[in-house]
Amino acid sequence: MEYNFRKIEDDWQKYWAEKQTFKAENNATKPKYYVLDMFPYPSGAGLHVGHPLGYIASDIYARYKRHKGFNVLHPQGYDSFGLPAEQYAIQTGQHPAITTEANIKTYRKQLDQIGFSFDWSREVRTSDPSYYKWTQWIFIQLFESYYCKDANQARSISELEAVFATEGNYRINAACDDNIEIFGADDWKNYSEEQKQKILLKYRLTFLSETEVNWCPALGTVLANDEIVNGVSERGGHTVIRKKMMQWSMRITAYAQRLLDGLAKIDWPQPLKDSQTYWIGRSEGAMVSFNVIASETKQSLPYKIDVFTTRPDTIFGVSFMTLAPEHELVSKITTPEQKEAIETYKKATSKRSELERMADVKTISGVFTGAYAQHPFSGKEVPIWIGDYVLAGYGTGAVMSVPCGDERDYAFAKHFNIEIPNIFEGVDISEEAYTDKENSVIANSDFLNGLPYKKAMKTIIYEIEKRGFGYGKINYRLRDAVFSRQRYWGEPFPVYYKNGMPQMIDKQYLPIVLPEVEKYLPTEDGQPPLGNATTWAWDTNTNTIVSNDKISHPSGDLGGVFSLELNTMPGWAGSSSYFNRYMDSENTEEFVSKEAVNYWQDVDLYIGGSEHATGHLLYSRFWQMFLYDKGVVPVEEYAKKLINQGMITGTSAFVKRVGFTFFNLAGIDFSVKDNENLNLLREEFKVVKDKIISEDLILYLKKTYNLDKTNNKEHIEHMKKREVLINYLINPISQKISELGLIDKILIDDGDLQFFKTHVSVDYVNSNDQLDFERLKKEDILYKEVEFITADSNIFLCSREVEKMSKSKYNVVNPDQICVEYGADSLRMFEMFLGPLEQSKPWKTSGISGVYSFLKKLWKLYIVNDVFSVSDEEPTPEEFKVLHKTIKKVEEDIANFSFNTSVSTFMIAVNELTALKCNKRAILEPLAIIIEPYAPHIAEELWKNLGHSTSISTVEFPVFEPKYLVESRKEYPVSFNGKMRFKIELSLDLGIKEIEDAVLAHEKTQEHLQGRIPKKVIIVHGKIINIVE
RNA sequence: GCAGAAGUGGUGGAAUUGGUAGACACGCUGGACUUAAAAUCCAGUGGGCAGUAAUGCUCGUGCGGGUUCAAGUCCCGCCUUCUGUACCA
């Protein structure tokens, strides 16, 4: 009876699907446990071996929890809106929904064959109208809410309207736009409906505003900061420029402090928390106002420059101010003499792309405006400059420059010869700024003199507030999140426009379904792709989507038909609350029912990649807090514990071509023509395209050049071989050389050979790095005419390097082939066996035979004379010991997510039981259970053959009993000065003194001591003995 | 620049509170079975030195110091690689 994994795995996958073994119930007496994976984007390339890593880990955990008596929710779905499907649609005209559907089918098939215990009855797809109905619903909730800073929570916008109507906005303390004017109840009543809406928009948690965005012309869309890598788009690497656009934004900044505080409550990896903390970027300081004065008359101008500073204590060190070139005051305060210079500079900076600005951080540039500001305390006038090191988008877009305490201000001042007053006690600032705030003591600063940092901070903020120059403030680096995308394949907004003001469509008419378009590109006049839709208007009479030509009036006021929003939502919209929807995915009336969400509460374990640290994982926390405020969900943080699985890197394979360097020989007459020809030659043979050389020959070529020439015989032998090879490579070149008439005029340097490597698909390379070049030549047109040069053996070797697994690097390994060859259980165990879950690790299939033969050995334990059979005999203490030590270790490993070590533990157990020839039910039955989370198919089959008629999946996990591990004797390692020399077996009943006597009496101890008396004998009971000489 | 993670045999990795460094597996070497191959099984396998051998000695966890009876593990100072981030006032 062989281990027939194909049949076993097929059978059980069918069984689980038919019996819905892993369907979770929303009301159960068992305690709940929610295990979640980050749902995948179904790309056209299908799954590669890196994807299942996290899924296998979470599946092991979920299965383990079922054995431990939990009602486990382990759902899966698809984040199916996204750019690749849209780009594919642009190229081929194929509707994204069709390609997405096809990709999902492939994913599902691939996932199914790995044997995951997902509850597919709860599947969600973000691109499915029945799902994005709720994304739209949450959007509406955000629109209908504002953030009350007093209550520190989101409140209904109608509450705000009520306050406005009774007392205006004097007392409102809300997270809102900066430019809100104060009004009273009477003002409010007299405002037109449009004016009211405009004001309310400034308070809403999702709002329209003109924002400077990262516009990518090539993609025709706005990109979020985290979609830009090194100044170009993450996808496609296109340039990104800054542009002002009317956009939906999410007021995530309202939640900055809570997002920060919440981190303390959750068990997430510290690096991930660190990057969120940094991203939110809280800094404490003060807002200070500087009055602008006219340069000539020294009279106050009606302008103030507000700056945010984290070092108000250094305010007496201010010797100039710097504004961002885009700052609105720049044009107002610039003096006529400076106008031209300022305008030129502004133009130059706006042209510079993000990429350029980032590339030369070191270049200092700026222009004096001609205007001065008055120092609020000293009354001194300080010049106002503009400079692009000040960013318009952060703080107020202006800084008070303290060159002695800030590196950039220092560099700027040095560069433009601005005064650098020193306001630190006992510090030399002639070479660089003094930035160590904790140890600073203030000097030359009036009432701050002699105060250390903390005291100076308190004092100055008190004074600033007292004198009315400003106030203490906490600033955050976090920006409000732009929520509009100029794409087709995303959630449409439930929004239409009436007189240019956005209106929400009532919940009962959701979902607003994505319209059909002919082209997925932006329209010719620059509208988003939805601008191509002809049926994309909202009829408020019928509450349906109707044809655009029914819009009766440009502003849409007459017939009650209005144009719908043309933007769609960004990628993170659909993923920001999907984990709540899984709890009640079929509910058509509510996002999630009270019963369901109160039962499941939150995710107990969330597994996914760390690349989502500042994107998905921040936005989803924000939405969760909002939904918590609204009473939709019962907890503020949705994931108690999070694990980042490491990346699996691929082992890329390379083939190398050789290239030659040519020199003209010294002392030879060289004509212009010759020179041209030489360049021609260099161009053509920089790389010899039609010959590829095996790696062993390349190593040989490198090695032989520097060979020790004193060993004559060997040297000559090698040089001969080398010459043959080089000549072979050079021959066609020689021909060319003679054609060009360059013989005897140039030198080919065969010492400094250049090698050029090209990726070759790993599919053609076996685990010994041998390339099947015959097949490659047949199947890949690029290599049809190429000659593969090998050593005598005719074996072609590739060179290898570890890189990120990616299609473009031709190193993607697909799990399907492994499932076919070794089975899902082997794949699962092997992926875990690779190394610690959270570390990145290279993929090498060579080790898979190890886990495969382990599974075969496991199977054999249950087989006697080719028949499945176990004995009911009582196991020996030794056999019990093997079992219980395995249970103990595996449970500890699961708790620590150390799945790689539990695989070795299983191997050790099976090796030991095989050695013991153990065939006893009392051992082998529990063994099948503890191995089930890792290798569920074989475990089910063993369980069935052990005589059980139901699935093993919820059988109680064997209980570890320490009594089986109690030892009576210990083999003590005996060390001398910490170096282990020999072992001595002693009873564990012995006391320290008795052990010492026994050890000192031992002949080997005597041998080592050679009659010397040890200084000290250290004995750790049950562990070690160390003799100090 | 800043933040984080990591560095252990030919390879992936183990060593949970400082206590036998290299578990487990791959690979490699030798052997058994076989006409042969695959599969399977057995033995060996960090480097160096000595010895016919059993064995012994010695070096060894990126580098340099330190604490300790004892350091891969703790402390100080560096180096390298990876990942994230980008003038945040």
Structural class: alpha+beta
Helix content: 25-40%
Which spans have pLDDT < 50 for at least 5 consecutive residues? Answer: none
Tell me the Rg in angstroms: 37 Å
Mean pLDDT: 87
Report the end-to-end length measured between terminal Cα atoms: 61 Å
Overall 3D shape: globular
Let me know the largest β-sheet: 7 strands, mixed
**Individual helix count:** 31
Report on this model:
It is built from 31 helices and 37 strands. With 1029 residues, it is of the alpha+beta class. The strands form 11 sheets. Strands 11, 12, 13, 14, 15, 16 and 17 form a 7-stranded mixed beta sheet that branches. A 4-stranded parallel beta sheet has the order 2-1-24-25, with helices on one face. α20 (695-705) packs across α21, α24 (824-833) packs across α27 and α28 packs antiparallel against α29. The longest helix has 28 residues, at 712-739. The chain starts with a helix and ends with a strand. The mean pLDDT is 87. The chain binds one RNA strand of 89 nucleotides through α10, β12, β16, α14 and β31.
Question: Mind sketching the topology for me?
Answer:
Elements: H1 5-19, E1 32-37, H2 52-67, E2 71-73, H3 83-92, H4 96-112, H5 129-143, E3 145-148, E4 153-156, H6 157-167, E5 174-175, H7 185-190, H8 193-201, E6 206-216, E7 221-223, E8 228-229, E9 232-233, E10 241-250, H9 256-262, H10 270-280, E11 282-293, E12 300-309, E13 320-323, H11 330-333, H12 336-351, H13 354-359, E14 367-374, E15 381-386, E16 398-401, H14 407-416, H15 453-467, E17 470-476, E18 481-482, E19 495-498, E20 501-504, E21 537-539, E22 544-546, E23 561-563, H16 578-581, H17 594-600, E24 605-608, H18 616-629, E25 642-644, E26 648-664, H19 672-685, E27 691-693, H20 695-705, H21 712-739, E28 746-760, H22 773-779, E29 787-789, E30 799-804, H23 815-821, H24 824-833, E31 841-842, H25 848-861, E32 863-864, E33 867-868, H26 877-895, H27 899-915, H28 921-931, H29 936-945, E34 969-976, E35 979-987, H30 992-1001, H31 1003-1009, E36 1016-1020, E37 1024-1028
Parallel strand pairs: 1-2, 1-24, 13-15, 24-25, 26-31, 27-29, 34-37
Antiparallel strand pairs: 3-4, 3-5, 6-7, 6-10, 8-9, 10-18, 11-12, 11-14, 11-17, 13-16, 14-15, 19-20, 21-22, 21-23, 26-28, 26-30, 32-33, 34-35, 36-37
Helix pairs in contact: 1-29, 3-4, 20-21, 23-24, 24-25, 24-27, 25-27, 26-27, 26-28, 28-29
The chain binds one RNA strand of 89 nucleotides through helix 10, strand 12, strand 16, helix 14 and strand 31.
